[in-house]
Amino acid sequence: MKPTKPTGMSGLCLRDRILTVTLSLVTAASMVPTRALAEVMADTSSATTAAALAEASASDAASASIYSTYLTTSASSTGGTYAYAASDTLWAWAREKGASAPIDPASLTYQWQVSSDNSTWEDIPGATTQSLPLASYAGRYVRCTITTADGSSSRTTRSRNKVAAAGSVNLVSVSLSNTGTLAPGDTLSATAKDASGADATSNASVTWSWYASDSAYGTGEKIAGATGPTLNVTSDLLGKYVYASADGGYGAAKSSVAGPVQEAGAVTLYKVTVDASGRATVGQTITATAYTGSYTQTTSADVVHYQWQWAASSTTDDSAFTDIPGATSATFTVPEQTTDGTSLLGTYLRVKATSSNSVVSTSVPSYYGTSTQDPVGPVALAGGYDVSSVKLSSSVTNAQVGATLTAQPQYQEASSWGTYETDLPSDAKLACTWYAADDAAGTNTRELTAEDGATGTTLALSSSLEGAYVWASCSALMASATSEKVQVKAVGSYDLHHVLVSPTSGTLLTGATATATVYASQLSGSNVEVTGKDGVTLQWYVANAADAPAEEWQPLDGCTSASIEVPQAAAGKNLKVMATSGATSVSKAFDQPVADSTTLAGAVARLQNESWRPTLTYGTDANVNDVLLAKLAEEGVETTGLTVRVTSVSFQDTNSNATVGISTADADNGAITYFSCDTSKVSNWNMSSLQTVSSITFALTRGDETATFTPNRTFQVPWDENAARAVLQAKADAITLGFADGDSADSVTQAFTLPASLSGASASWTASDSSVIVTGESWDSTLTATPTRGSADTPVTLSAAVSFTGYGMPDVTVTKDFPITVKADPEAVAAAQAGLANKVEAGFTYDKVKAFSTGAAVDQTAVSGDLQLPTTRTLGVDGKYYAVSYSSSDPLVSFNGYHATVVRPLGTARTVAITCTVTDKSNPEVTATKTLEFTLSPVSEQEIDEAVSLMQDARAGYALALLDGQSAANVTGNLRPFMGAYRDASGNLAWAHDRDTQSAHPGIVPVDLPGYSDMGGMSWRTFKSSRPDVISHELLAYTKPTDNTRVTVISRLADERFQAYYEFYKDDPMVSDQLKAKLASLVNQDVSATFTVAGTSGQDAPEQVTASCAVIGPNASGASVSWAPETSLAVEPGTTAADLTKQVLDANGITYDADLYTFTKDGTSLGYDAATGKWWQLFINGKSATVMASNYVLKEGDKVVWYYSAWGDSLPGQVTGSVKVIGKDASGLDQVWADTTSLTLVEGSTAADLSEAAFAEKGLTHSSSTSTWGYYLSTITSPVDGRELGWDSTTGAYWHLFVNGAASQVGASSVNIANGDEVVWYYCTDSDSLPKSDALVIDPTATRPTSLSAAWPGYKGTGETGVVRGISTPVPGSGTYAKLDWAQSRLTTAMYVNASDAIIVNGEVYDAAQTRLYRRDASTGVVLDEARLAASVDSTARLQYADGLILVPLHGGRIQALTADMLTTLWVSAAFPTSTSSSGKAVDQQLLSSITVRDGKAYFSTVAPDGSDSCGGYVACVSLADGSLVWSHEGTDAGYYWTGAVPTSAGVLTANDAGRVSLLDAATGREVSSVDLGTRCRAQLAVSGNVAYAVTTDGVLHELYLRADGSLTVGCSVRFGSYSTSSPTICDGLLYVGGSSSADVTRGALFVIDLASMSVKHEALVPTTSVEGQVGTGDVKSAPLVSVAADGNTYAYFTCNGKPGGVYAYRLGDAEATTLYQPANDLWQYCMSSIACDASGNLYFFNDSGTLFKLDAGATTTVPGEKGQGGQGGNGGSAGGTGAQGGNGGQSGSSSTGGAAGSGNGAATGKGGVSGNGATSTPAASSATTASTSSSEDGSLLGSYTSEDVTSVTSVGDKDDAVTGEVPATDSAAQAGPPIWPIVGTCVGAALLILLLATRRRDKSDVTEGRRG
């Protein structure tokens, strides 16, 4: 068998392949570019291949095989053609497969043929040479058959075109002067070009035709008379598309389509609506409104044509509608019939609007796509309705003489879930006729008149109608209906239905009360109580059995009332009651015979009725028989002569280690042995069963009477408490204290431990003296006692209170004391005292006391305002351990924390002494005080007058301030709240709208309104709106109302400078009343302003709104009854449901609490009941309300109902269920198509009814069917992207019905809905179950939280400034370091996990790792919630919070948006296309930049890494609404590495990897202007005003000016370092940026640059740490966090991309940076994290160990990091398999897509590890890779792997995958030959030896981007 060479290795032998691998490895080791070597190999391979091909061609020449043929118009073998004319000569050619040269014509034979139709051919005689002159063949087809000389192979050329006439032109294109929309009168020109590109439009050989088509894709009809290259567009072409056709003799060439032809003024319509819904009446005028956008109506200049249409049924099918003749205006008055005689009664109407397109009113675009809208109808006569039925009701219960019957005609009303019957509307033109007959068959039917009592819909029943049958017939111009016939009964004759008796259970006793309740049927079908009604009689009976025949029941004399005392005569018999009315009787008997209450049997029955059982109390009850006797006496049983004894007893369980019992012996019968046990041998869970008496029987004897009693419930024998105490005492006696080495009870100097957990018991500890503090949690096994040593020995008694733990254990405690002595340490106390005194002396000084409002220095001799006193930090103490207090010698100065409120004296200055006292919390002996004197400047009356004047102006200007330029009579936008009012420099009234302005100008401020409480749940505080639905509280945000609405806003104002003065001086007799009045006018001044807010209708809102309220609660038996009937009231607009409710409750005598939680009526008070879960549930318009009554503003017609019910209950007669639809998105992920929708339907509704109602409410397009299975869904159309999903025969997926989490076994129409049922339609296969709670399900309808605040919303914090102000961040110091609050690992596999920086939202921490998003408790770091991500985050991931969403950047350039509260995914944006690498491979996009949000859009950038370069990327903008792409701007040659996109007023700024800074149009992404910096940029731009600052990787800062016209110009530049990819932070005119030192590229540094002079002010080097195998520190990649701290200093915090991977701090002005925090040794790793800061100043960061760290804002430690073991000799590469790794140096590359070699400086060896300076060891080479440092820019570490996918990765794949992230094409070729890996292994060993021996100097390319890409 002939050997076969491996595919893809053309001509290369095994030796060549091994050589390739070996040379690649050696090249990698010696840093010779692999690509150059590969090119040499490629040349060698190419030469070898060419030689082989030549050899093969020569050997196969003798057996040529024709593979293809072609024709030319010259003797040259090139330039094949199908176009030729009679003046040409054709030449025929043939080729072999794979050959570039034709077969030698000499070895071939030829035969030419001719045809007239290109179907039937004939040989041309004599035409057997290679060429054929065409002069004789014009207008016909020719071809040639070519055959090899030996006849073994033959092929005929193709013939496509006729031979053209001589002089013809070969046209190749026709173009039009306009391909867009055309209008009548336009001239359209066509241009034709020939094969040479020359214009042939006017060539005489060219003929022209024009065509018109109904669509842009259809074949048109020729336009008559249009035979030239121009077309005059006429009106008869309206709606048409046109194109030109030109023929130069070779065949016609067509142009593209132009059009459509539209009228001038035509617009593209978005939708058309009508102002009516439901039924329409004859004479009603309906108006259509056309829109060009969601809310934009067409204008009078727009041309819109209308056509009204009708359909026979309520449908949205276009084919069902017919045009109504003449109905072509925007308004339509409904006629009874059309002009062509068609009746419109019963039909349905819609309108069609046409301009440049057509829209209909039954199709409505929506947020999710197009939904349907029901047509208007049916059409009926005014007041006309089809009466579907007639109900009768009676003023009593039935039709009896004296009652009045009322006819209630019904009609079918349509709703979202179908139709239902309801009363005719008030506008119905109703006719009602009453009839009477002798019998139900209608004998002697006669119409009743007014004389008979018939008046309209009522009939008064007189005695003349007694016995007759009556009924009503009703109509309303249309179909009529008739009620049922009812017989008129005599007066007081009720149709009895049933009777109930009570008590309903147990045994009835003589002397007890038996009660009967009688019910009669009403005409409506329901029952009503008629007990005690005239005509209803009762009689009680007895018999020997409950089922005795009627004749055996004997009446009880005198027992004829509803309630009787059971007589003695009934003892032993069964009791029954019979109710009679007229001819009907009903009865009910008790099931059990009556027991004689005087007998022992009666006594036992009484006990059983009560379900009584003994309850034993230790120390009180000694005998269970006595307990029973006491109970019998309590029940009134005669106990004289009564004996009780226990005959049997059994316990639920027994145990030899436990003692318990009740005696059955004669000697001590009934004696109780209380429970005790050996707790070390009996478990807690077993004790309960050992104590439980499962059965006990008592024998009762009294004279000759006997009875037995066995309780029907179990009971327990309690613990013997003395035995329990003995158990506890033994445990207490075993306690020993855990003293420190050298300490004892007599000499305690150090902290010691106290046992808290004592095996089934616990000890709580107290100390008799504060010199010992006991700390620990209740669940700790041991507590810590910490002594404070004073100046003298201190005796202390520690007391342990020992008690049992566990359920059911006795509540007993024993106490044991442990005396100890805390030894004195007077020297330490004195030293601490002196040290503290020094701190107070240095910290409490005049220069550290500041003005409270401005922070400015204070003149202690003339204090004129409040003071900010030194805090713990200023005093140099830790507030956790020291208490600071201030006191004053004068009440003029009072304190709230560190805020000293100053009331200045009147008249003369006054000196006040302020004393600062600092005390050690752990040792009160250590305390220090210092006093400073301040002179308070007197306040003058002029100052007060000026303040009064300011207050007057502020009150007068309140309305104008809120309006902010709007008209009070026409408010059309948000009002503007303010923070303060003051006088500006000119003395004019000015308003402060931010905190800085208000602090700088103290004056008038809004204060809390009356009634506000922090705990009250109010949504208002300082600005309260009368209509929060129109103008919101506080923010005064505007929501456009329907009608013009009057809104009043109120506030309360005070002068913050004089707020305390009135309270201080109001009772001072030395102050004049006039001055007091002025001071009073400066506080609590109420102001208001009333505005008119413009509505959409232009009409004024009604003066009143009518709404109703009802209350439904339980009666004594628990049945729901009316507590307050439905009451309609007219109230003012803005009235809330709570206001209305209180009016109705007051009117009905129902009292209530302020929050409407508890209602009280007739002494019954009901609120929340924990046992039943019931409360007063608010329903609005039939649905359970989702807002508080006080927050719901009433609308016209609202129905408010309070129903005492449990969650999920519906109003009586209703049922509530929910529907959810889960489909699939385009990528196959689960996606919510309809969120959980709760609906209330009538009882008896099915899952099909509920589903249809929910689909209608959500506008979900679907189709359903019914089969033997029942109702099922065929298809649903996605509301997100319009895809339709139904049965898929390939996958077996279809719409499955799940009810309450389980797959339904019947169709939806067979599932009756109960309250609370949850219906889910899920698109899946039969084997699937509903998605688990953590599954990724996209829910576009999820509610976004609106009230969350973010202390650190994303990269560089609020506004991406990177600056925080006024908070206390950790202070770096000499010998002090930040204390670790917590550290949480995110490492889930052996491989490095891609993870994000942290953000802080609503006081919680959010971060992402791999494919999970986490929400953490900020105090502990513990995960509170997590959610699955659609893909992994990339190696750099910067989360962003905006508009209630957490935005997570994902691999592929996608963003996933999740709600911040529930972590529900709303959307995942689409991935971006791959870019092509230098080797031709596809490379995924990586989203490494920040996400910047502006105006509801997210801006970001992506990069496709290609080695250390990039091969493309995108800048993009997506909508926050749904994740849809607004625009993208592609970089085809270079990507956007970390640079992001910065929105400005002029556009979006970005920079690419080639150093090109671009300004993009914010609306389209089009590049507006650009400048080239000459060096790549890998940092986000910083913008200040109209100046942008860009950092390039060569360590240069560039200044760029953004001009008003959008142009960019380069300003100054300054070189600050040798390398940088750090994004800068600007603060107070200075720019902070990280990078590598200007002197040493291996040393990281922070640089401070003065922007005014563009000069470097400071270069702070990163402190060095000795790390084995690491050269230098690594560069600073993080964006600096700058804190303008509360202590007045400015600090910069940053990380460094080298070990140990901690945090560094720099105080502005210092010479160098300091280490703020250093992780434990085993967590040392590289670090690129930027630092997040919360509102308290705590810091968050992470490093490559996978750990997220939180640093405490205030606490410090004297060690730089946490205890831990060193990581200097790790156990192998983090992800690269086994092998030694020096110092855990980075991450290995992998064979995964997007894999990247790890970071930095740590030397690593082993399979897949990372080399000492970052070079990746590679098992194979390709021509497209380099061996430069694998940096974080060199590709994604994990690529498409997820943490669930990867457990280990070995480097045996293509190096391109590991380094560049490219996706190679699948190579399926087989490889043959002997195994070569032993040889490769030898080569690898040689290469690694070279790597270990090589010593090379590290250049800039070697230290670029650290560990990730």
In short:
With about 1900 residues, the protein is mainly beta.
Question: Any overview of this molecule?
Answer:
With 1909 residues, the chain is mostly beta strands. 10% of the residues lie in helices and 35% in strands. The chain has 17 helices and 126 strands. The strands form 35 sheets. Strands 83-82-84-77-78-85 form a 6-stranded mixed β-sheet, with helices on one face. Strands 26, 27, 28, 31 and 32 form a 5-stranded antiparallel β-sheet that branches. Strands 29, 30, 33, 34 and 35 form a 5-stranded antiparallel β-sheet that branches. Helix 1 (14-30) runs antiparallel to helix 2 and helix 1 runs parallel beside helix 17. The longest helix has 27 residues, at 34-60. Residues 1-62 and 1763-1909 have low confidence and may be disordered.
Residues in helices, as a percent range? 10-25%
Report the span from N to C terminus. 50 Å
Q: How much strand content do the residues show?
A: 25-35%
- Report the principal-axis shape: globular
Multimeric state of these chains?
single chain
Low-confidence stretches: 1-62, 1763-1909
Query: How many beta-strand segments?
Result: 126
Main beta-sheet annotation: 6 strands, mixed
Structural class: mainly beta
Please tell me the overall pLDDT: 84
Count of separate DSSP helical elements: 17
| Strand arrangement, major sheet | 83-82-84-77-78-85
Radius of gyration using CA atoms only:
47 Å
